[in-house]
Design a protein that fits this description.
By secondary structure, the chain is of the alpha/beta class. The protein folds into two domains: about 100 residues, no CATH class; about 100 residues, 2-Layer Sandwich (Nucleotidyltransferase, domain 5), CATH 3.30.420.10. It has eight helices and five strands, in the order αααβββαβαβααα. A hairpin with a 4-residue loop joins β2 and β3. α6 packs across α7. The longest helix has 19 residues. It is globular, with a radius of gyration of 19 Å.
Length: about 240
Amino acid sequence: MKKQNLFKWKHYQPDLILLTVRWYLRYNLSFRDLVEMMEERGLSMAHTTIMRWVHQYGPELDERVRCHLKSTNDSWRVDETYVKIKGQWMYLYRAVDSEGNTIDFYLSESRDKRAAKRFFKKALAFLHVSLPRVITVDKNPAYPIAIRELKEEKQMPQGIQLRQVQYLNNIIEQDHRFIKKRIRSMLGLKSLRTAKQIIAGIEAMHMIKKGQTLQREKSVQNQIKFIHLLFGIAV
């Protein structure tokens, strides 16, 4: 495992830390809700402690789960949704394949050609992502320009078909709902950096819940075992 001492100097057991992180990323709970739930177990901790755990282990979960994802197919559905950060609307680019499997996500302050190119470059860098045969997008004019420039730069295959048909993107608009529902219940994201950390963890838990990993079963108990194994915790 890349980071052997990830839980070193922590005052709580690794499985308890991952429990609070997993619950926060998966369910509509606040940090203070988790504090009360831990008090029922006889444990006293500050809500800021759990917040730091989420900021640290959420992105780590996303990074580690990437090596265990099943390959996506070559039909991409791309769309962006809105996330409010410190009172301002930001843009969350997301892509799924035709079966609803998450391809990737990217949080940006802008909604333009540059942001679209960065998103596509990020998505294409992962081994579990198949090169797209067709990319379905909405009427955002930035997408055709970004894809054309990436083809010219030889960072995207020339034969990709671009479809700007909004109704075909219903599958990703439905997938947005889980992410937006979880973010909406939070008291507010305070900065772009922390928003990226939290959203990375939420997306990772969403991929695990959807059964995108190579594990056979999608039961909660198997999800817990899988996450423990990712972090090198004995089951």
